[in-house]
Design a protein that fits this description.
alpha/beta; five-stranded mixed sheet; 10 helices; 12 strands
Length: about 270
Amino acid sequence: MPDMRLVIAGAGGRMGRALIHAIAASKGVTLAGAVEARGSAVVGRDAGELAGLGTNGVKIVSELAPLIKEADGLIEFTVPAATLAFAELTAAAGIVHVIGTTGHSPEEEAIIAEAARRAKIVKSGNMSLGVNLLAGLVERAAKTLGEDYDIEIVEMHHNKKIDAPSGTALMLGRAAAAGRGVDLARRSVRGRDGPSGPRRAGDIGFAALRGGTVVGDHTVIFAGPSERIEFTHRAEDRMIFARGALRAAMWARDKRPGLYSMADVLGLGSGS
């Protein structure tokens, strides 16, 4: 089978550059194009040079549509509005679309699900193997432990991150809610300030910290009577997400159109 031709959207960002590195170091894939937002200072630059690899002949452009015709898949870590525009194009072409972007509203999630009727979409709040294994452990712990154990999710990211709680924190929250058999939207608490009253049993709390250059730290705390169980994942390099995204793209290449998760890619059963 020929190499899978992948386009990277958000090519000038931290994850975009990591993805260009990962493609250059991986077998079975090739960089077919690089896209950035119209007006970005990196449009017109060589993608390889920008990523610190030396020139590779792939110029960063602002229009995805011309690249789609020659591509087998798109990987994007961008912003929610861009995801919707990209999904329209990948659905029309029937190709793979790996979405690492987070912060989508319920309405935007519905649009993505509709696009997945024609595109092969893999969407996850986190592309790493470790986090997806963690989600499975959290779901099992939440199912095993009763409401005497309060669940709190604490996450920290770099000071440039624009959404909170993080997509990974919400992914872990959904895992905990699935274990408890509850609706996360009805039982989540997003930060506390002032006289908040006693904690309601069964709620799932979130705390978001931002600062420095932290790639991503997540801890799920089960606080029970006289004991506390904590599950923690610390990301030390964005390459774990880039390698996971490539794995997702190659996995989806021969799949039917649909909306998949990293749990599907990794064979971990149900996931978010």
